[in-house]
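Researcher: Structure prediction, please.
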Amino acid sequence: MNLPVDTFDWPFFALKNDIPRMIANWRGQLGTFALATLVARTGSSPQPVGCQMLVGTDGHIAGYVSGGCVESNLAYLAQDIIRTRRGQFLAFGADSPYMDVQLPCGTRIELAVDAFDEDEPAITTLLDNAENRTPSLLAGDIESGERVTVALNGAVPEAKGEAGHLLRNIFQGRTVADLPVAGQIGQMYWKTYTPTPRLIINGGDPVAVALALLAQVSGFEVIINRSHGPTMGIDHPEIGYRRLDAKALFSEVPADPWTAIVTTSHNMDVDHEILMEALPTDAFYIGVLGSRTHLVERRARLKAAGMDEAVIDRLRAPVGMNIGAEGPNEIAVSIIADLIRTWRGK
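Model: Predicted structure follows.
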């Protein structure tokens, strides 16, 4: 195994859990790699069904599937799967053949581990769909070696030949909404992907900066917008920057169901323009920084502009959870906590 010997001493790789993004970032370096998908678990586990771990041969590793109990063993076993290009189902924990890898509390996890070439159609389609913010289903058959990625646009996807047979066996009359995020049927497995959650921040105050940095390390795709801001954005390669008015912003960066919007402009007129464009969209979270005393005025202006009360009620103001936050960093924590709570449906 060519992974550095200290790879698992401090598992920074586990923080890189947006697998399509990591494949895209490492494209041209991976060649053949393994994807391990948690398809079933019995007992408590830090990671849910559907989580994944990517294992390459030259130190490229991302994601995790347990609390750190199996990752080094999994990375070792994945090398043989990469070499032979033949997938396997592996189990760790209770009743597992790997007696030296036992999980706490009698937990058992089951993984589908398959080898992929970075330029094969299933991966290319997965990355294209991720770039276009289109939900996807990756399905594979360990026995036949068939793999396919299809878009999930509401209707049950169809395909011809072996790929169609694979999809029919996985859905078995279920709708897209009924299909679990991942699973296994016989020698077949699947994993669904939704677009990376995106946060659009309108503003350039200290809270906006702190929020952008915290959101990025929390797994959000981040874009800061300042219509009359400086020419250069934040010096961070993974934080986008726009200098657009409200209409142009949401025309260029449409607010889909995986988007959150927070405005921190401290300007009632600017906030109003953003909210007029943002509130009618499919964004899952829309908030504005400011005191509660301004909320009545904000709502009145939106209503006077013809916005329906039910749409106005989507507004979160003051934005964030009430944790007694003081200062930009703590306020950013309160907003991210509220975003995650909403994103996870809590």
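Model: The CA atoms of residues 268 and 294 lie 9 Å apart.
Researcher: Thanks, that helps.
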